[in-house]
Predict the 3D structure of the following.
Amino acid sequence: MIGIKIRGTLVTMIYKKTLELNTVMLNNFSIGEIINFISTDTSNLVNACNSFHSMWSVPFQLVIVLYLLYQQLGIAFLSGVFVSILLIPVNKIITSNIGKLTEKLMKEKDKRVRLMSEIIKGIRVIKFHVWEKYFIDKVSDYRKGEVKNLKKRKYLDALCVYFWATTPVTISMLTFSTYIFLGGQLTASKVFTSMALLHMLITPLNAFPWILNGVTEAWVSVKRIQRLIEVDDLQLQSYYSLMPVQYGKTFDNAVSLTKCSFNWGLRSFQLKNINFSVAKGSFVGIVGPVGSGKSTLLAGILAEINKEEGIIASSNMRDGFAFVAQTPWIQKGTIKDNILFGQNFSLEKYKTVIKSCGLVKDLQEFSRGDLTLIGEAGVTLSGGQKARLALARAVYQNKFMYLMDDIFAAVDINVAQHLYTHCINGLLKDKTRIICTHNSQFLLSADWVLIMNNGTIVNQGRPFEVLNDYDVKTVDVKFDEANNSSYLTMDDWTPIKESEVINDLNDREDQEEGVINLSVYKQYWKSVGDVIVYLLFFAIVIMQGTRNISDLWLSHWVNEMKNQHDDNAIEDFKVIQDENNEYLYTYTLIGMINSVATFFRAFIFAYGGIKACKKIHDCLLASVMSVKTTFFDINPLGRILNRFSSDINIIDDSLPFILNIFIAQFFHVIGTVGSIIYSIPWALIIAVFLTPLYYKLQIRYRNSSRELRRISTVALSPLYNHINESLQGLSTIRAFRAVSRFERENEDNLENYLKADFSSQLAFLWFNFRLRIMGLTMLFFISLISVFIHQWNLTNAGYLGLSLTYALALTNLLGGLVNAIAATECDMISLERVFSYIDNLENETDVEDSVSPPFAWPTNGIIQFSNVFLKYRHDCSMSLNGVSFETTSSEKIGVIGRTGAGKSSLLVALYKMCDISSGAIFIDAVNLSKISSRQIRNRLCIIPQDPFLFDGTIRENIDPFKEYMDSNIWSALQRCHLAATVKRLGGLGCYIGENINLSVGEKQLLCLVRAILKNSKVICVDEATANVDEMTDRKIQETIRTAFKHSTVITIAHRIRTVMDSDRILVMDNGKVVEFESPNVLLENKNSYFYNLIQQEFK
């Protein structure tokens, strides 16, 4: 119960702490670290509860047992005790080293889990670039460091196991030898009473290193968690000030910044001398080149970064802000849940928000409407849909102030104008609005505009005062709603009722039932290796056999000496001594064989466990890295990460440990019961009666325990997923002042897990009580039989004493065996979950008759789609609906269409990220279905919509396989206008991690650098310049034209300017090709979709 309370308190405390730290403070801790705090470190502290209890109980037991031993054997007992005491400092040295290795191990584990989190989030880009091998190697390198420390720790554990297993025989041997040398005579009463006491002594002495180990691991975990807890919380009261008062009247401003300076930490990008005020209900625009500090300014207003100096005054700090981030943060769940975001449902308000955010047509196309389940981070939505969904969530919250970061970047001009008219200047017209954007035409009606560059406000004022091309834009931009109406209707729309919808998205995790499949044990056996398993069983049989034989030999020795003394009462002392020595030599030899067998058993098991965990992790990693991308659409990051954190941790550490105990206990029980029956054959009658009862009892307990463990393991995934999701959207959660709701949701998820854990403990107590009743029953009957057979001289005193000694220990042995079986089965569930990923995931299988593409393919870059149909999952509608078109050699194709029209799906089909339902795709007349996906992706190049950077140097991010010279990389950086930024950061060797200080636009430009270096014959550009300013966009387009002059380039864009100089324009709508002609031909047709877009963006 205490353990459950500790776990609940720690998880809640860690989660609350992460919600109270701003982005800069939290950047000191990776997501992997925080997940490990909640999983591994919390488990270490919970497991240490018993160790803390034993710290006082073990010394108390020792004192009592030592006194009783002294009563039996006099000072001879000190020899055995002396050896045990000598082992205490040895065990202390071992456990202290185990503690140090555990600390190193956890650091390596944190690095690996953090990297896996990055990989899962960026898996699409990794597959596009065929970087699977690089990341597998990188994870393997981290894993090697982890396994290196694990190996050392396991061998030290093996040494502890060796001492624990050999101590009983060693202490018995030394104690009785000393007693004989001091002139004592062994009798059955002395031997077996002493043996019982020595067994009572051995348990606490051997438990002591494990107790110290548990306490040491807990202390390491406490220090790790303490590092997070000791970080100062974000104090909003000290960060914000009250609105200043002048002449007894408060300024009527929503927010005011006076002489403010902000930074992202030491030696990072800074904002300096920021001065501006925003009047209530006004519309303020922020513009500036890439990396000028626009997003950082919003972060400063939201208290997400460090404020060095200055005053920020807010008129309504308690209510918070409605924040729409540049990279939309979307929760796993339905579209409706994302929009409501914890607010009460109001039908009219909800419909108004849906319409103003341009989501009506999207929801009409979804078969389940607003009750459509979307994957984690909105992976099942297009970029524009995610942007509008995040905006709808903000609008529904009805806050007094709205901070929006580049909301027009991911949508086409039609949608952008709709949002501008119906949302920004419509539904939100009375709200305070601050918008960062590169599309300055949407700031013409703003009340105030800030121009930023290099971390400062270089100019501010009304639009006509500060926007250089204001006059041109007022003429060019025609907000023609007549053209708009055909696309974004404001017709009445009604949500679908929840009772009418059945969602198929994999919202619940698959859970096995019943007994662990025998194949799981076989696979683990195979992972360990046949030779190691056979050697292990051989060593265990020798170990347990010699242990029981030594006790039987001792019984025989005592009995023979008693019979000889009874026959010849007057016997020379020297003769007796010689006979004792002969028996003692044999007893010692048996003990030595036992010691050698125990040593080999401990180290063979450690080696086998390490070998298995390495192989299993490598197979899991390979399986996840080769799985189809649709797997990541329906499985949240927390669920997948759970396999690589908690489950792998159990397979590494807990499973080999508990399996070792189980096998040892199993053979110990067999040896004990066999020795009792050998000594007292009548005990077989009791065994026959109690065995079926024991069997039924343990089956019932194990079934319950196993299913409860499965429930608790599955309940962990929503907990981890919620925590991970919260960490991704912390700035949004805090801005909306939704922290308390997320804390409640975390507590609900935690409670579901703790209920299963508590039930599991109750089941154990239920079983333990009944087991003790059975043990006492067996002891009672054996004692009763012993009285009668001793009275009738049916057996000798030595065997009788041995049977009673074994019977005393049998209750604990049986309990230990079942607990070990149950614990092994519970840990095997983690193995079962991992093997389900290894064996059952649908990998990206290449056709059996796949052929190698021609040499230097593609040479012309002619792409042909022939009646292509594509759907991402069986429950989805068609994303491509009979698409057919053909390019010419080195042609530049611009792809446009409303968000969700199927533009990105063209690239998904081209790169074989998802199998097409029907049709065919050709490049240079080669059917892509005949070529492996890896070869296709290797020959093509893409600049993806969502930029992906991983922990590593800038050089590694650009060129992970080290294929290009530094001079080539600098040249590419220069062409992408990033050379100055990279030099400012410290050059190509600069390490960029989670606290990277690059804007989204700069990240997109780094992705462009990769493409320029690769220079493939076919280049795909998916909204690569959506987050850069117009001037940079023009420069980038010029770079693309010159760098990819001889390549076929497919450019997906929302800005018409971006694709105006394309050879042909491909217009998509509802997964179909609507128009495909040169821009000039399409402009001649005034009814064309393209013509309408041009009318809205150009004069």
Remarks:
- The radius of gyration is 36 Å.
